[in-house]
Design goal:
Order of helices and strands: EEEEEEE
Distance between the termini: 7 Å
Number of strands: 7
Shape: globular
Radius of gyration: 12 Å
Structural class: mainly beta
Number of domains: 1
């Protein structure tokens, strides 16, 4: 994921329960990676169409994120809310 485009989402967004929580537009087909706080588990919207990549990422705190990937066609991408009582907002990268 080195060199991929990262979307910086505010950590305070973790408390918002609306759906979608995050939207952005991609101008070509791309893989979108979402890293979720392992302490909370996989949100329902990260369904079977998302693949668990296996590797994790670690941030300060320390927070360990489980990485999921899904291919999207060019256009709008919408991501759902954080599940449960997450301590950290999820991370987003586009490849």
């Amino acid at each position: 994921m080195i060199g991929d485009a990262w979307i910086r989402d505010p950590n305070g967004s973790k408390a918002f329960a609306g759906n979608p929580l995050v939207t952005f537009t991609i101008n070509q087909q791309a893989d979108v990676f979402v890293g979720t706080d392992k302490r909370v588990g996989r949100p329902a919207w990260l369904d079977g169409t998302w693949s668990d990549t296996g590797p994790t990422e670690t941030a300060t705190g320390p927070v360990t994120y489980e990485l999921f990937r899904k291919a999207f066609a060019a256009g709008s991408v919408a991501l759902g809310p954080v599940s449960g009582t997450a301590v950290a907002m999820y991370t987003i990268a586009v490849h």
